[in-house]
Design a protein that fits this description.
The longest helix is centred in the first third of the chain and has 28 residues. The radius of gyration is 23 Å and the shape is globular. The strands form two sheets. A six-stranded mixed beta sheet has the order 3-2-1-9-5-6. A hairpin with a 2-residue loop joins strand 1 and strand 2. The protein has two domains: 239 residues, no CATH class; 189 residues, no CATH class. It is of the alpha+beta class. The two termini are 13 Å apart. Helix content is 45%, strand content 9%.
């Protein structure tokens, strides 16, 4: 137990030494946080923090790469999947799911990439095996080997639990078709490939060109060639089969595309799903209702209760700007149902960035929201692991109408925060004109490390 506490203490010491460097570039100001083992840095406050690239320093306990110190994983030798075909994706996944920070990037970056890598791995391996699923025994062996490879490259050792990935996820589940020959004899392969070979990451979520093609293919292989559910009742068992068959369709797609293209398609489809919901766990709202319900007697105590409530949300994870809009709408509906009729978001000046994990810049705290189309984390031997987020999403939290379910990005009147461009941001770091070091503390990470 003492060894465990000591290890976390080392991570805490390493994490606390963070700097923010702002760069004044032609296209805007961008910055970088790098992990350094410095004794103390005096904070320099900033009134208007700009979009930045938080760089998460690697834990002292984890190797930078398997080649950095000869830490090559010992695999079971029982998994026949072609790991070399997706080697680049495995490295991307390890970076996206880096050690202590994986839980905080899980919903948006880490787990979607982990899932995409597994789908592509099975798809690419089906070129030799002709099978789009593994049996349960083989699944356990292969998932264990994947985990060993990822952790050897710096990924969190609890990745399966963080992402709720089980060996059964690599099987066919209830889908009746698992061979590529059977699949292609039932499905219109050319139509499916045309729709999904390359998706529009901005418009796919609204137009659902690829998603509809996947659904049609899944229905065909689940329902013995039927292409539509209209005109007849479908049992719960059949709906479950269709859902399981979507995984088979995705694996087949991954077998027909090169791994980077397959990964791009899978991540794009995942973004459509994650931006439709709020990933945060909303605590009990009783205290807020007591102070803000019906007629608000004291605005100060109401807003204080709201501030305390929101601070609990800020301890959970990094989320996208669209997810933040959905979380605000979801919480607003819960409060309305509990007789909080006044727009307390407006009353208490709650913005969508108040729902995200907070970064302390100097003496100020700022919400760090990821763009709605989040990019992968990146690794650099000098700066560490970094990802793009924005401190400037000063969008007022939406007080929902009673009929709201979630914020749809397909509604052209919805005001969404600007999406930082990963490529220009990263290039900007190499053309900075000046730097101002600022002390940064990710409050929720510190709390986790102290537990």
């Amino acid at each position: 137990m003492r060894e465990g506490v000591l290890s976390w203490g080392l991570v805490l010491q390493f994490t606390l030494q963070l700097f923010l460097c702002f760069s004044k570039c032609h296209g805007g100001s961008l910055g970088e946080i790098s992990a350094l083992m410095a004794p103390h840095i005096s904070p320099i406050p900033s009134e208007n923090p700009e979009p930045f690239l938080p760089v998460l320093g690697p834990s002292p306990m984890m190797p930078l790469t398997p080649l950095a110190n000869g830490n090559v994983p010992v695999l079971s030798g029982l998994c026949k999947l072609n790991f070399s075909a997706v080697d680049t994706l495995l490295t991307i996944t390890a970076t996206d799911c880096w050690t202590s920070f994986a839980p905080y990037l899980a919903n948006v970056v880490c787990c979607p990439q982990f899932d995409a890598t597994l789908v592509t791995l099975i798809g690419q391996s089906s070129k030799d095996s002709g099978m789009l699923a593994l049996n349960l025994t083989h699944s356990k062996q292969c998932l264990s080997d994947v985990e060993k490879i990822l952790t050897s490259r710096g990924a969190n050792v609890r990745l399966q639990k963080i992402c709720s990935i089980r060996a059964a996820n690599l099987t066919e589940a209830s889908c009746p078709v698992i061979s590529t020959d059977s699949f292609e004899s039932i499905v219109d392969s050319s139509r499916l490939l045309l729709a999904c070979r390359k998706i529009d990451h901005v418009n796919e979520c609204c137009e659902q060109v690829c998603q509809n093609a996947i659904s049609d293919a899944a229905q065909k292989i689940a329902l013995n060639g039927m292409s539509s559910l209209s005109g007849g009742s479908v049992s719960g068992e059949q709906l479950s089969q269709i859902d399981d068959c979507k995984n088979i369709v995705l694996r087949w797609l991954a077998s027909k595309l090169d791994p980077p293209s397959a990964n791009s398609v899978l991540r794009g489809l995942a973004n459509c799903k994650i931006n439709k919901a709020c990933p945060l766990v909303l605590p009990n709202i009783t205290h807020v209702v007591q102070e803000c319900g019906e007629v608000i007697r004291n605005q100060t105590t109401c807003c204080k209760a709201m501030e305390i409530y929101v601070s609990k949300l800020q301890e959970q994870s990094f989320i996208t700007n669209v997810q933040a809009l959905n979380c605000a709408a979801f919480l607003g509906m819960k409060l309305q149902k509990a007789n909080v009729s006044k727009n307390i978001y407006n009353l208490c000046h709650i913005n969508i960035k108040d729902f995200s994990l907070q970064a302390t810049v100097g003496s100020q705290e700022y919400g760090c929201l990821l763009p709605s189309l989040p990019s992968d984390a990146t690794y650099d031997r000098t700066t560490g692991v970094s990802f793009i987020c924005d401190l400037n999403d000063n969008i007022a939290a939406p007080w929902p109408s009673p009929s709201s379910e979630y914020v749809s990005t397909c509604n052209k009147t919805t005001k969404l925060p600007a999406v930082p461009k990963a490529t220009s941001a990263q290039k900007g770091l190499h053309n900075q004109k000046w730097k101002v070091p600022l002390f940064i503390t990710i409050m929720s990470v510190i709390k986790m490390l102290l537990l």
